[in-house]
Amino acid sequence: MLQRLLSGDTPRSRVLAAVLVAILFGLLLTPFVFPGTRSLDVAAKVMVFILLVASYDLLLGYTGIVSFAHTMFFGIGAYGVGIAATRLGPTWVGLALGAAAALALSAVLALAVGLLSLRVRAIFFAMITLAVASFFQILASQLSWLTGGEDGLNFRLPEVLRDRLVSYYAVFGVVLALFLALLRVVNSPFGRVLLSIRENEFRAEAIGSRTVFYRTAANCIAALGATVAGILYAVWLRYTGPDTTLSFNIMIDILLMVVIGGMGTLYGAVLGATLFVVAQNYLQDLMKLASAALAGVPLLPSLLHPDRWLLWLGVLFILCVYYFPSGIVGKLRAGR
Amino acid sequence: MNAARRFDWMPLALVGAVLLAALPLVGSASTWVTLTVAGLAMGMMVYMMASGLTLVFGLMDVMNFAHGAFISVGAYAAASVLLALHGRMEQPSLAANLSAMLPAALAAIVLAGALGLFFERVVIRPVYGDHLKQILVTMGGLIVCEQLIHVVWGPDQIPLPRAASLAGSITFGDVAIERYRLLAVLVGLAVFAAMWLLLARTRIGLLIRAGVENAEMVESLGYRIRRLFVGVFVAGSGLAGLGGVMWAMYQESVNAQMGMQMMVVIFIVIIIGGLGSVGGCFVGALLVGLLANYIGYVAPKLALGSNILLMVLVLLWRPNGLYPVGKS
Amino acid sequence: MAEALLSLAGVHTHIGQYHILQGVDFEVPRGGLTMLLGRNGAGKTTCLRTVMGLWRASAGSIRYDGKNATHTPTPDLARQGIAYVPENMGIFAGLTVRENLLLAAREQALDEKRLEWIFGLFPAMEKSWHGLAGTLSGGQKQMLAISRAIVEPRRLLLVDEPTKGLAPAIIANMIDAFKELKRTDTTILVVEQNFHFARTLGDTVAVMDSGRIVHTGAMAALAADQALQTRLLGLSLEAHQ
Questions:
Q1: ipTM
Q2: Which end of chain C is more exposed for a tag (fewer CB within 10 A), N or C?
Q3: Does the beta-carbon distance from B209 to C54 stay under 8 Å?
Q4: Residue A207: per-residue pLDDT
Q5: Neighbouring chains of A at 3+ CB pairs within 8 Å?
Q6: Distance CA B289, CA B37 (A)
Q7: Please, what is the end-to-end C-alpha distance for chain A in angstroms?
Q8: Measured between alpha carbons, how far is C79 from C81 in angstroms, rounded to an integer?
């Protein structure tokens, strides 16, 4: 039963399974076990990023494509909801329309970007996605009549969703469902073709799979996943703005999460997102203490300054790329 | 970068066309001159920042996403020197100012070059040939470098007052041209000329041009091309550092995100120019600089997106860039 | 009997998952011209590339001029006197003919007498001296590639399919040039599909199939034996002109 639910892709490591279960139940029970707005916010962010990063893992870890446009799709989802809620008021119809429009736009863009650029080399593709995402970010901050510009959009949602608990579990449900769906995708024949393309593109072409088609499809699925994550995030925050979704820093965060968690595993996204978001919110307090404690020592306090936590993550990220391509998940699986 | 046999004039004609088309759009000839100089200056600075990256890619097939770090580090190194020698910068004599700016530029080139050496050896060498890992690893390097800048120089933006003799503008009748921009154009032209001479007239230039086409064949002819790679990488990094200094002095401040912020523009420029082509990078940078300034004046709302639109248009015309490098 | 200039013993080469060379044993005697024949995909090009160090031998040993050359880096092999003319010629299209030759001449300057000799073999080189190599015809490019390999005296020439895609008249020119080359004391190893070319010029011959050498011997002997030709090379090679 569990096998079927997970599409045969089990954790394959007791420690990993335990951690995943802990995260699952932690997220499920947060409103009761860790009450308070801050912890709910952190937990919701964790869930949104699990979906965001898992969809990116499909692209990077399974298909071997580096794209910098993932945050663009994230933003499209969020702005879809934001614009609809602002223009059409806090109605279900408005919400549905906004979400649908966002998904449609993402699909079209992903298709266009995919078909046009996936024929070129990986590096070219990466640079173009960077330019496209940057363009989109500029659009979002310039078209202030539509997007609220730099300030973004604050909006209200239909009655039912105004209850924090309800929206929390709505997010939980959608994320869980889509995560399992992604597991299904990567463990299907389609997923296996993706892996073979990643392993050896030349050979995959030779055995007749039209790689452009598969890679574009992967690009679209990933884009849709990111869009849904954006929709959920906007629903949770009741706010959308260029910094919350479109900023390049978020793209970097995604990269950090997917690599450190473990590329090509999907569970890596769960671990990476949880670790990152929790650390982002709580580790900094720890680092502040450490930094203060080492006040007299040269250089160390600035190295341990809470704002420098990205430094350590960056180093960890680099080490993972060289030595642990399957990240934490890989290490856990190897260790069992 | 060949001697002018069958030289491809079209891209240069494009630059000319942009210059001419802007005149009626801008309206006044004097404003046009000011904007043109501004555009050329910006183009030159971007060229300095970008040329190393495109050459490294053409020669070594390595895309160093951390190139922005060399720009930032160069700028910061220079800032430290300039601030230490601020007395000389405040004097109204050009000679005194240069006696501060030259060491600053040197510091920038040396430090950025040294960082480049470290990068090539430690970060990039293990992942030659694997583009995916290269992108990831160099992105990681960029993050770490930016953070280390914070550690060493602090998180705040550092203001860099302009040299006293280069402040303000020279006026010819209606036309006002900023002095600093003139300097930037001169330095840029000098760098371009030096690179052109190196590539066209020296044996090393010959090796680089051949290596961009077919590195394997150059090895088969008996040259240890790895050493050339390192040399070019370090030179490219140093050049980026120089670009960073020029840019920082232009902005009159340095901040840790400088390099990262320029990356999008740099990528656009090298894609427009053709990955691996130094001449293409030069033309691309000029186009980007000019366009940014003209459009910034004529239609400010479009300004930020103009680069990307330019890139799309150029790619529709020439999918491999203005001067595609024929790879064997 | 002097030791062979080049000898391979049990050489295996893997490219990715493909096991291309599966135990190559053969020797190239000093002086003279050795032909390496075989069907498409037999591994001839891989053989040359492995010798030149462009692909790494996964097993076995390669000896050149009495020394172990199995893992010697490519530039060092070139400096020890091996010149390689690849299948795609490897000329630098963006450089002029002169620059191509200049690059190949490691002694910094081109020797006048040597150049005269090359111009004698390939007059087109003199005519297009300052022209971009990319604008040369297919045959001229091949001539340039070979000129590069001989612009200075070399001990061993590795040539991969010099007549590929060339018109018969140009091939005749090529044959004359190689006859001239044989008069120097350069050892030449040529991979070829054109049997006429092979038979005219080859002193010794080796035949490859599926990553192994299946026949070695004198060219004259193979040329005289139709049945052997058909067995080794698939069809009567009179047709392969």
A1: 0.90
A2: N
A3: no
A4: 52
A5: B, C
A6: 10
A7: 23
A8: 5
